[in-house]
Amino acid sequence: MSSEYVETVDGVLQITIATPGNGTSLDFTGVNAGSAALRDLDPGIGAILLRGTGGNFCAGGDVRGFAAAEDRGAHIRGLATHLHEFVRLLDAAPVPVVAAVHGWAAGAGMSLVLAADIALGGPKTKLRPAYPGIGLSPDGGMSWTLPRVVGVGRAQEILLTDAVLSADEAVRIGILSRLVPDEEVYNEAIRLARTLAAGPRSAYATIKSLLLNSRTASLSDQLDSETEAIAASANSPAGREGVDAFVEKRRPNFS
């Protein structure tokens, strides 16, 4: 699969969510192409990479487009519906989601950073909710993901003050996973995604499923789920290969 917005290389589904031609605002051609690919995920895909191809990861929604709409509410409702389908599909994906966050991640761009499993940034990366600055409330799941990452009190402050977060602060509070040199953000992110794609895919799928279920499970129920999952993993090809490789003091081959 290859297009301007969606490309599969070495087991990684790469989705472009913002482009220079769109002023690095959220590009719904890319979002919808990404949703189509995720809806019918190729079994050969072992990781997903979100990227922007301009000067920013994603500068947020197309505010000029909002202003030009005859019915702004209906226009934004339609955009949010498409974005939320994409976020739901990312959340349900059985493979790791990596974000290459260079430059700004504002508004929906910040929401998509929060939707990733692992987000890499550079020293110049900045994040901002951006919604209050134009008199709007969040979308893209930010009101749900942000308090779960940083805590309710910190999320309230970030959202209500429309805080600009530096790269260091974003790492400290857990929004970005780590920093690499600015010019290496994409290269390191695709390297990581390829490494994950070559890893124990069944284990990753189980980890993501356990984390998904933990949102509503009690500790006791989660322990039961972990018991069943690790027992099943032990008899899976990946589990058998991983344990055998450890005992034989060699690198596992999960392919």
From TrEMBL:
InterPro entries: ClpP/crotonase-like_dom_sf (IPR029045), Enoyl-CoA_hyd/isom_CS (IPR018376), Enoyl-CoA_hydra/iso (IPR001753), Enoyl-CoA_hydra_C (IPR014748). PROSITE patterns: ENOYL_COA_HYDRATASE. Belongs to the enoyl-CoA hydratase/isomerase family. It comes from Nocardia jiangsuensis. CDD domains: crotonase-like. This is Enoyl-CoA hydratase-related protein. Residues 230-255 are annotated as: Disordered. Could possibly oxidize fatty acids using specific components. Residues 241-255 have a biased composition (Basic and acidic residues). Keywords: Fatty acid metabolism, Lipid metabolism. It catalyses: a (3S)-3-hydroxyacyl-CoA = a (2E)-enoyl-CoA + H2O; a 4-saturated-(3S)-3-hydroxyacyl-CoA = a (3E)-enoyl-CoA + H2O.
